[in-house]
Amino acid sequence: MIGDRDRALEADLRAQYPQAIVRRDERALGPAVRVLLLLLRGRRPHVELPLDVRATAFQRAVWQQLCRIPLGETRSYSEVAAALGAPAAARAVARACAANPVALLVPCHRVIRKSGALGGYGWGIDRKRALLAAERRAVRKTLAPGRTGRENGSSC
Domain range for residue 123? Predict the structure, then answer.
């Protein structure tokens, strides 16, 4: 979940997990937050954090495909569907992207419409635009002459 206000994020968390005890623990979460901030700044293209994410087999396949999109690049929903061997499943790919609960770790923001338009994003189109721009800046900064950018990997 990405958001602008702690209170709204906490309310969403409580709604998703009504039986959970929710408390702030910056000491325990600090290392993970620092890694995510490095990712957002384009200084860490690959992040490994412990995840327990429930997904259908198709969602998991889509998310794995998203993790193959290099930092700073995009693919269309149709291209992701074709890479999965299901070229008619572009809308299902879009639904799998929308269901992604770990948006920074599984980069659904890297998926756009075939027309080149950004399409939707659960955390706002402005945030999607900003994430893509930050990734492209990070790739440009790290590119040496003769490198293609693929060396930067993905965030998964």
Answer: 57-141
Q: What are 47's two structure tokens? A: 């992040």
53 is written with which tokens? 């994410």
Q: Which long-range contacts (CB under 8 A, 24 or more apart) does 19-25 make?
A: none
List residues with catalytic annotation. Answer: 108
Residue 147 has pLDDT above 70, yes or no: no
CA distance 108 to 104: 8
pTM reported for the whole predicted model: 0.74
Q: Which two tokens stand for residue 76?
A: 């269309």
User: Does 62 score more than 90 pLDDT?
Assistant: yes
For residue 147, being part of any structural domain is answered with no
Residues 64 and 113 in one domain: yes
The whole-angstrom separation of Cα 45 and Cα 143 is: 13
**Residues ≥6 apart with Cβ < 8 Å to 99:** 55, 59
